[in-house]
Amino acid sequence: MTIQPQTAILIGVLLLALITVESGGYFLTRVARGAVPANALQQKFFRAGHAHAAVLLVLSIAVLGVIDQAALAGPLDALARYGVPVAAILMPAGFFLSVLGRDPQRPTRLILLLWVGAAVLTAGLLAAGIGMIGAGIAALG
């Protein structure tokens, strides 16, 4: 199984992006210690954003590790290849950005980024899943 050069580059970028998640973990320890003021809503959203970023970046790497085997073309290939990485940006951004400020009582309209990310994630996983099933069926015949 060979990985296309552009896929290898994107996987490398995603691996480096995990360093930002690591620094986000440090930020969360500061919030937990009270060094960074945050109300209960912010604490919950910061944790959720951090967790989604980590899981979706790792899921992106897993999808990219196999997607070159799928026989997808054009927009479907792009959706399968980039859907999860785009969701890995949008969903955490929705969590973090929607509760910025001093003592917010509810998320702002930027929570929409979370739901757009969820839709992109679903579409990307659907395209990747169909592509991989198609590649498996093709390999059987």
From N to C, what is the helix and strand string?
A: HHHH
Number of domains: 1
The main β sheet shows up as: none
Instruction: Report, as a whole number of angstroms, the end-to-end distance.
Output: 18 Å
- Approximately how much helix is present in the residues? over 70%
Shape: elongated
Strand residue percentage: under 5%
Query: How many helix segments?
Result: 4
- Strands, count: 0
Give the radius of gyration.
Answer: 18 Å
Mean pLDDT: 94
**Structural class given helices, strands, pairing?**
mainly alpha
**Residue windows where pLDDT falls under 50 for at least 5 positions:** none
Transmembrane segments: 6-28, 49-67, 79-100, 112-140
Keywords: Membrane, Transmembrane, Transmembrane helix
Model description:
Keywords: Membrane, Transmembrane, Transmembrane helix. The chain crosses the membrane at residues 6-28, 49-67, 79-100, 112-140. It is a single chain. The chain is elongated, with a radius of gyration of 18 Å. It starts with a helix and ends with a helix. Helix content is 78%, strand content 0%. The protein has four helices and no strands. It has one domain. The protein has helices spanning 5-33, 40-67, 74-97, 112-140. The mean pLDDT is 94.
